[in-house]
Amino acid sequence: MLEKLAHISMGLGFASIGLTVATWAREKGKSEQERAHAERFGNFVGLWAPTFFLLGIYMLKLKELGYDREAEKLADELKTLKEKVN
Questions:
Q1: pTM
Q2: Would you tell me which of 49, 58, 74, 84 could form a disulfide with 16, CB atoms 3.0–4.6 Å apart?
Q3: Helix (H, G, I), strand (E, B), or coil: what is residue 86?
Q4: Tens-place pLDDT, residues 20-73
Q5: Within a 10 A sphere around the Cβ of 75, how many other Cβ atoms?
Q6: How far apart are CA 71 and CA 15, in angstroms?
Q7: CB of 52 within 8 A of CB of 20?
Q8: How far apart, in whole angstroms, are the C-alpha atoms of residue 28 and residue 86?
Q9: What's the rounded Cα separation, in Å, for the pair 83 and 76?
Q10: Looking at residue 4, what DSSP letter applies?
């Protein structure tokens, strides 16, 4: 589970880099004010990438340390409790 979330987070990091480039390139030929806005928005989206990459690395480290197994045990216990209630 943590590995899947880590890969999703890494993918979002790469997507934010692509979105930054696309935003900047799309607004390249318009007025000065629109280009400035596109550049600021592109920079804003570009700042998301490091956060997503760090989250992905953190989740992979948690999996490496064994926290994924603990999460699976908690999910199994929760499932058992729900079955007892029903």
A1: 0.70
A2: 49
A3: coil
A4: 888 878 776 678 888 888 888 888 888 999 999 999 999 999 888 888 887 778
A5: 11
A6: 28
A7: no
A8: 60
A9: 11
A10: H
Q: Which distant-in-sequence residues (6+ apart) come within 8 Å of 23 by Cβ?
A: 38, 41, 42, 45
Q: Residue 36 belongs to what domain range?
A: 2-85
Q: Which one-letter amino acid corresponds to residue 27? A: E
Alpha-carbon torsion angle 11, 16, 18, 24, nearest 10: 180
Structural domains of the chain, count: 1
Give me the count of residues in the chain: 86
CA 66 – CA 71 distance, rounded (Å): 9
What does the DSSP assignment read for 16-64? HHHHHHHHHHHTTTS-HHHHHHHHHHHHHHHTHHHHHHHHHHHHHHHHH
